[in-house]
Input
Amino acid sequence: MKTICFYFQVHLPMQLKRYRFFEIGSDHYYYDDFANEANVQRIANSSFLPANRLILDMIRSSHGKFKVSFSISGIALELFEQYAPEVIDSFKELAETGSVEFVAETYSHSLAAVFDPEEFVQQVKMHSDTIYELFGVRPTTFRNTEMIYSDEIAQMVYEMGYSTMLTEGSKHVLGWKSPNFVYGHSYIPQVKVLTRNMKLSDDIAYRFSDWSWSEFPLTAEKLMSWIKSAEESEKVFSIFMGYQSIGERQRPESGIFEFIKALPLQALANKITFSTPAEIAKKFNPISPISVPYPQTWSGEEKDLSSWTGNDLQTEALQKLYQVGERVRLCSDRALKRDWLCLQSSDHFHYMTTKPWTGFTVYPNYESPYDAFTNYMNVLADFMDRVKGQFPSSIENEELNALLTTINNQESKINELEKKLLSTSPAD
Output
């Protein structure tokens, strides 16, 4: 029996305010609270809240047979907590149904998997802990920022305990193979890889309201007929997209909500089910391994990192940021650590791209890539000064690490002796 795996990315970046050169060293708050509040509340009301209500109704009316999965970045969760806590409540309701899987990713929706493996591991753990605290479930499936995947990255993820991963079903990786199967890692047989069906996903996310599209209008009946008519051996149809596609990219007047609502009934009529990634991994074995020696993403025609690393502006910003990673992890300044996370969001580097915008953004708040770069680098300059204030740049990382280890050991010894002293009763 054929099954559909719906996965939605939920991410909003912490928007930076206009930060000018002369503010470096005097203003350590980098965020545009007004823009963040306006953006979060707008998207919550146009997309996340009505979509969550719809999916909750669909799960209940189908007696749990309709199933979906989400990855929600830690930065998005922070913004929801601050500006739209009802969004988190609505995700909690979905979690209670047992028909929703929460997928792990990097906490700040970062590029750490490519630039800072140690940071990558810490962020994945931080994200998993946050999902568990909020929703009472610990993720077992992994999906990296922007679907970034390679053999090496998958190995790191596997060593963190994840054996099911999501990625793009790109043509340069799959070749003649269909995305509608479960594949395996090139040299770790325990890893199962679900590949995104680009056509079906983009039909909904990008082409749904395009009157010039030859298949317009897309209906639930038409979608299910396409899936039903696929080769009998093709069982898994992975439809992955940004959650803003429902209600924000595809506006309510396009009929997107009615389309989603009609899916369970049409699936039932065609004997098609819905499954979460974890369920698919348990049910299906890989038909063959796929080799991905270089990182691929779900962005653009190239499906590579060029939307974030394709020009000198992006490269300089990323190198400057990640060169202080080890020092930030060694410090105990909570404000500094939070800024470190916020500044890593991939969106900041996407705003610097000089490639044509073929996708969709709800934050076109810069006049040009150079404007985005200048603003970000001003913020980063102040941030790096604060890092230097914690640890002088004259001290090498290894020397600093050894010094902090000694200090921590001394603090532990002092605490241990203090406990012994308190537990010792005074002589009569």
Q: What stands out?
A: The first helix runs from residue 33 to 61. The two ends are 80 Å apart (CA to CA). The chain is about 50% helix and 10% strand. The longest strand covers residues 3-10.
